[in-house]
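Worked example

This section walks through a single chain of length 753. The input is the sequence exactly as stored; nothing has been trimmed or padded.
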Amino acid sequence: MTLTSTTTPASTTESTATRTAFRTCPLCEATCGLEITLRPKTDGRGEEVVRIRGDQADVFSLGFICPKGSTLKQLHDDPDRVRRPLVRGADGQLHEATWDEAWAAVERGLTGVVDAHGRGAVAAYLGNPGAHNIGSMLFARPVLKALGTHHVYSASTVDQRPKEISTGLMFGGFTVPVPDVDRTDFLLLLGANPWASNGSLATAPDWPGRIERMLERGGTLVVVDPRRSRTAEAASQWLPINPGTDAHLLAAMANVLFEEGLVDLGSVADLVAGLDEVRAALAGLTPEAVAPVTGIDAVTIRCLARELAAAPTAAVYGRIGTCTQSFGTVASWLVDVLNTVTGNLDKPGGAMFAKPAVGSANTRGTPGSGRGLVINRRQSRVRGLPESLGELPVSALAEEIDTPGEGQIRALVTLAGNPVSSTPNSARLDAALADLDFMVSVDIYVNETTRHADVILPAPSALQKQHYDLALLQVALRNVANWSEPVLPLDPDQPDEWEVLAKLALIAQGAGTDADPAIVDDLVYGALAEHAPDDVRAAVDATGRRGPARIVDVMLRTGPYDLTLDDLLDAPHGIDLGALEPRLPDALRTPTGKIELAPEPILADVPRLHESVRDGTLGRTDERPFLLVGRRHLRSNNSWMHNVEVLVKGKPRCTLQLHPDDAARLGLAEGDPAVVASRVGSVTVPVEVTDGIVPGVVSIPHGWGHDAPGVELRVAREHAGVNTNILSDEELFDPISGNAVLNGIPVSVAAAS
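Given that input, the structure is written out below as C-alpha cells.
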C-alpha cells in the first residue's frame, strides 16, 4: 500500500528549477522514507515544497507512506504554528516577543519559584513527539538534570511503561524483543491496530504490507481486540475480548502449554531462570476459569495455545491496549513468557532483538550481564505512586499541583507535550495548570496545555531539523540507519531545537540568559565520547560539527557497525544492515546473565489477577455498566495532527461506537448525541452503531477535544470532537508501573436530553 501526497507537483516548465531532498518521516514509529520536491518561491525568498511522496529507494520503507507523512508541508506552512516566542503580558494574554525577552521571562519565572519554594517545586513533562526528534532525545535530559527535581513525568506512563518495565526486569535495560513479522508463520496480536498506526515499540514501515505478505505465504494472523478493527478485518481470526483481560487470556494459554507438556524453550533453554515459579504462579488460571471474564470460550483458548506451540515460527505481540489497562505490566510480561516457552524467543520468525547502528545499552559494556532494572526507588508525594526509569506516573501530576504541602508543584516545564489532552482526569489537570505560579513550554502550537504557559518557546518545523531515529531503531524489525539533513533552513533568529533546550538547561541551572548553548553541547558530547578511542574523537572533532550531528557521529563510530555520519550522508536512502539475528546471551543485561522469567515485582501482582477472575465484574457496576476503550485512525496522530485540513476533513471520526444491541436497549440511533459519564467526568458525543464491537463495550478515539478557550488551532476547533480523557480516572492504574488505565474504564451511557 502506497499513499502519496495530493500536493500539486511541479509543472514541466518548472521542473528544471526543482530539487529533490530525502528524509525520514518523524511523525510516528514507522520511519518511512520521504522524497520531497522543492522549487524556488516566486518572490525569490527561499524554497517551497511542491510534492512529498514515498521514497521508492528507501532501504526500509521501499516507497510506503501513510497520509500523515505527505502533510509535512502543511505542518510547516500552518499559519497557527508558533514561529516566534510567546510571552504572557500584564493583560494576561500571550504576545509575540524576541528570544531575549522570552529567555528573560523564563529566568524570572523559574528563579522566582526556586527561590520561594526550592527546586522540588518545579516539574517537567516530556511529550510523545520528543521520541521522534534527535534534538529532544539528546538535550531533554540536560534540562531535567538542570531543573534538579524528582517531579519528572512523561507520556510513557499513559503508553508504554509496562512493556519497558517487564522487558527491563526480564532482559535488563531497554532490551525489548520485537516480532519478526517478515519471517514469521504465526502472529498473535493483542491491543494493537497496525492498519491504523503501524507498529509501536516495533519500528517498521508498512506493517499492513508486511502482514499481507505473511498471509500470502500461508501464515496466520490472530487479532485479539474488543473492536473489529481494520487489522482484525484482515486477520485469519478475530477474537473479541473484554477490555482489560489480555493478561487473563495469555495466562490461560501459558497454563495449557504447561499442562499439556508443550513448553519448549528452544535455543535459550540454558538461559532461562524461573520457569517453575511461573508455572506455579499461573496455576488455576485455566481456560475454563478465565473464559467468563475474557468472553472467549475455553475451547478457543486451548486451540489458540496449541496452534501457537505448533507453528514452525511464531510471535506474540502486544501493544497499547495491553499496556493501558489495570494489568498492563503482567500482560506485557506474559507476552514474552509465551514467546519464551514456545521456543520463539531470539529465533528468526519469532521475537528478536534489534542491534542499532548507534549502539544501545545492550551493545555496550560486558556482554551477557548488567545492572538490570530497579523500580519503585521513590514514590509520589500525595498517593505514593511508584517511580520507574526516573519518572513518576503522570496520573499523579494534577494532584501534585493542586494538593498543598511541602514539595507541591508550583512551576512546570513541558517539552512537546499536551497532557491536558492525553492524561487521566484532564479536567482536573486543566484546572491545576491554571493555578501554577509559572509555566514554560517548548512547543509549536498554542494547544489545550500550552494555553496555560507564561512562555512558549517554538521549535523549528520538522522540515527544518536534522533527524535520526535514536530511540525507535532500538526496536526496529530490521537493522537500518538513516540520517536526514534539514530540508529547509531555519527562520531568521530561530535557534535549532537542541539550542533551545540547551539554553533552557543553562537558565534552569542558574547560568543566566547569556550562557552559550555550546556549553551543554560539549557536555553531552563529552559524556558520550568519554570512552571513545583517541583517534575516533580526533576524527569527529576534525569535522567541525556541533549539536546532534557531532554526537550521532561519535555514537556511530563507536557502535557495532563502525559507521560514520559521512557514510549516512553518502547514502540518502539509508543503509540496510540486515535482518535481525539471534543476540542472546550477549544482549542480556541482567545481574545473573539469565532471562529472568519470574521477576519478583511481577509475580507479586499475579494474585490480583486471580482475584479479578473470582470477582468477574471488571469494575462494572449497576451505575456504570459499560467499559470504555479508545481507538486510533490512520489520519490521526495523538492530539497534534488535527490542525491539518486534509487529515480531518470528511466524515466525523470522533464518535461513540456502540453495539446495535446496546443502542437498541438505550434507544439510541446512528448520529444521536449520547452522554458518556465516568466517576470523574462526562462528555456528549454522537453515536456510531456498529456490530464491530463487543456488547457492553463502547469506544471513543483518543486525542480530540480542541474547543477549550484559548486554543489557537483554527482547523482543529472546527472538528473539535471530545476529549476522552475527561472520562479517564486517575485512580485507575497498573500498580507495578503506575501506568494509567485508558482501556476498560467503567462508564454509563444515556441519550442526551
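What to look for: The radius of gyration is 25 Å.
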